[in-house]
Design brief:
With 224 residues, the chain is of the alpha/beta class. 36% of the residues lie in helices and 11% in strands. It has one domain: Uracil-DNA glycosylase-like domain (Uracil-DNA Glycosylase, subunit E), CATH 3.40.470.10. It starts with 10 loop residues before the first helix and ends in a 31-residue tail after the last helix.
């Protein structure tokens, strides 16, 4: 992704525009827009699909039961909310928590693209199937959860949505194992950003753990 066509200078400026946004019909039914929350320079960006009722009422992402579970999972990494940035594909709650319509996603996409550009995270963690498919359309959450997938100069780490864990506690163990892969995902992202070393000074990669290549079964792809 290149260029911020809207010339937002900070995630705060994006948030201010999101709060007043009327780009799609969701503004008519929302209580509060939910721009996102966390560190504006986070190495890890979490992306859900859209706000729920609690988020709509308070204007903050992931603050209901699913959000409390996410906090517990983050503590296992360990990470705090202040260490990461959390947002959604759409910034206003779809009525009845239905899936967002294509025009609603399209209306919000400039905000998400700009957040990614300005935060410049090393790892994008998608929460749930719908969020994952925005970045990895050929994916299947049952197969790809916990998989580290290069996307340009970053890596994607798809996870189950915390709400799915609440509905099906059997997913708790794989979810915990997956979220604990965040440090590994950050390390993999550093390899993607490592400048190419000239051949005449390159050392044998096999003798240095930090220069091991990414898994062969994962291909690099652009983010957008």
């Amino acid at each position: 992704m290149t260029g911020n066509s809207h010339s937002w200078a900070s995630v705060g400026e994006i948030a201010a525009e999101v709060i007043a946004c009327e780009r799609c019909a969701l503004f008519r039914t929302r209580t509060l827009a939910v721009p996102g929350d966390g560190s504006p320079s986070a190495a890890v960006l979490f992306i859900g699909e859209g706000p729920g009722q609690n988020e709509d009422e308070q204007g903050l992402p992931f603050i209901g039961r699913a959000g409390k579970l996410l906090d517990k999972l983050l503590a296992e990494v360990p990470l705090r909310r202040s260490d990461v940035f959390i947002t959604n594909v759409v910034k206003c709650r779809p009525p009845g928590n239905r899936d967002p319509e294509p025009d609603e996603v399209a209306a919000c996409m400039p905000y998400l693209k700009a957040q990614i550009e300005l935060i410049d995270p090393r790892v994008i963690v998608t929460l749930g199937r719908h969020s994952m498919l925005r970045f990895y359309p050929e994916g299947k959450i049952s197969n790809d959860h916990g998989r580290i997938i290069p996307i340009g100069s970053r890596v994607l780490l798809p996870l189950y949505h915390p709400a799915a864990i609440l509905r099906n506690p059997r997913l708790n163990e794989p979810m915990l194992a997956d979220i604990k892969r965040i440090p590994e995902a950050v390390r993999e992202s550093l390899l993607l950003r490592r400048p190419t070393t000239p051949t005449h000074v390159r050392q044998d990669a096999e003798t240095h753990n930090d220069t091991q290549p990414l898994a062969n079964d994962v291909e690099q792809r652009p983010l957008f």
